[in-house]
Design goal:
This protein has 146 residues and is an alpha+beta fold. The chain is built from four helices and nine strands, in the order H-E-E-E-H-H-E-E-E-E-E-E-H. The strands form three sheets. Strands 3-2-1-4-7 form a five-stranded antiparallel β-sheet. A two-stranded antiparallel ribbon has the order 5-6. A two-stranded antiparallel ribbon has the order 8-9. Strand 2 and strand 3 form a beta hairpin. The two termini are 40 Å apart.
Amino acid sequence: MSPRRCQLFLQQQRHLTRLLTTSSSKNHIKRMDPLNGLDIRVARILSADPFPEARKPAIKLRLDVGPEIGEKKSSAQIVANHGSTDEQRAELVGSLVLCVLGLPRRQIGKFMSEVLVLGVPDQDGNVVLIRPDPAKDGVVVGGRLY
């Protein structure tokens, strides 16, 4: 490639980069963001109660998502690792979790689930909650994932 062609190519690359990272307008392309539209926040578990009415074993969680958002409720299928006993549910209270806001609410039995609590599967396919460690990480309730 000739030096002139190389220079033109680099100019085009820089221009494209500017287009992709500038604020959107009618003449610009929006920056591609895989988490665009998802609001994932840190929440503190205020209560964890059994949910025998659910078809699949679940726990009713009441969450504090910070002063900006307030309290939210969630039904979570976390019984296998986090709630088969009263002691396990009591250990959840006060711990931090990640939850997704802005999804449609779901009616589960007589309970309205407002947020989705995030977890990952263990070796048996049961949910393990994603729980930030506030002592090590300085995590703030209501903090947004980015």
